[in-house]
Amino acid sequence: MNSPDTTPQLLNRLRMRQVSLLLAIEQQGTLRGASEALGMTQPGATKMLHDLEDAMGYALFDRVGRGLQMTASGQCVLSYFRGMRGTLEALSRELQELKQGSAGKLLIGSIMAASPGHLTHALIGIKKQFPLLSIEISVGTSDHLVKLLQEGTLDLVIGRTTGLPIRDYEFRPIADEALAVIVSQTHPLTKKTSVPFEALLPYPWILQPTGSPMRDVMEREFGLHHTPLPKGLIETASILTTTNLIAKTHMIAVIPDSVASRYARHKLLSILPYAIQNSLSAYGSIARRDRPLSLAASKFLELLHSGETST
């Protein structure tokens, strides 16, 4: 195959129909299914796939028997095509909202640590400036939110750049995040003035899902003590589920200290006197470099980093 084209040459050779074909192959699972979904003949789809591979300069699929198996290059191209689809969906959405006289819609992803302070202040500020702006907030772990940002489902994320090709994104740090070990107010360990690691082990645990930054910290914490993770874990990123379980059991969980402190002040849980030896990296705002931010998104980021709540 030819060597990879430069960006101008690639833009000239790449067609949106080819982008649609690759996305349809992912969705349908087969070239035949993709061609039917797009109203094409299978030979036509095969030729288009060959043209796409020639334009990219790499084989996107290995031919295995009568089927196709995506190569590493294919996976890479597919991830960018998902982002292109998300960008076009965002463009279409914004144009439709402008046509209808709306102030638009802002799609934000945020880790729970940012919610009590920075996120809340920025939301109050942006609504003062754009009262008709619709805002949708997705709360989750950084790894999940960053994936949605890559695919174009979110306009921006407040989180960490875990495993992110940072050259393609703009990251601006906001704050460090301390963690707290929490239990119910009636938990036996609340009577202790100091809690060693070994005292935590007899109890069931709630941790965030595998791959999340907070889970990585706790896996390292257990590793430092040469102890495997507890059996029978409950894994959830939901702070509501975690606190509900904590309130009614002797389970132990780890959540951001900013969130735990608020619950503790209202006597909804207790923070144990145990210091986690590992720490999380700073979280901040994450935006894609290849997608222009709307006026509302730009103003939201300004408020988020300045802490202002008024115009």
What are its keywords?
311 residues; Arc Repressor Mutant, subunit A; D-Maltodextrin-Binding Protein, domain 2; 5-stranded mixed beta sheet; 12 strands; 45% helix
CATH homologous superfamily of the largest domain? Periplasmic binding protein-like II
User: So, CATH architecture of the largest domain?
Assistant: 3-Layer(aba) Sandwich
Beta-strand percent range: 15-25%
Mean pLDDT: 86
Number of domain modules: 3
Q: What coarse outline follows from CA principal-axis ratios?
A: globular
Fraction of helical residues: 40-55%
Number of strands: 12
Order of helices and strands: HHHHEEHEHEHEEEHEHEHEHEEH
Q: Unreliable stretches, pLDDT < 50, 5 or more residues?
A: none
Description:
- With 311 residues, the chain is α/β, with parallel strands linked by helices.
- It has three domains: 7-77, Winged helix-like DNA-binding domain superfamily/Winged helix DNA-binding domain (Arc Repressor Mutant, subunit A); 103-176 and 282-306, Periplasmic binding protein-like II (D-Maltodextrin-Binding Protein, domain 2, 3-Layer(aba) Sandwich); 179-271, Periplasmic binding protein-like II (D-Maltodextrin-Binding Protein, domain 2, 3-Layer(aba) Sandwich).
- Helices cover 45% and strands 17% of the residues.
- It has twelve helices and twelve strands.
- It has helices at 7-13, 16-28, 31-37, 42-56, 72-99, 115-129, 142-150, 197-200, 213-224, 239-248, 257-265, 295-306; strands at 61-64, 67-70, 105-110, 134-139, 156-159, 169-175, 179-183, 205-207, 234-235, 252-256, 270-271, 283-288.
- It has a five-stranded mixed β-sheet, with helices on both faces. The protein has a five-stranded mixed β-sheet with strand order 9-8-10-7-11. A two-stranded antiparallel ribbon has the order 1-2.
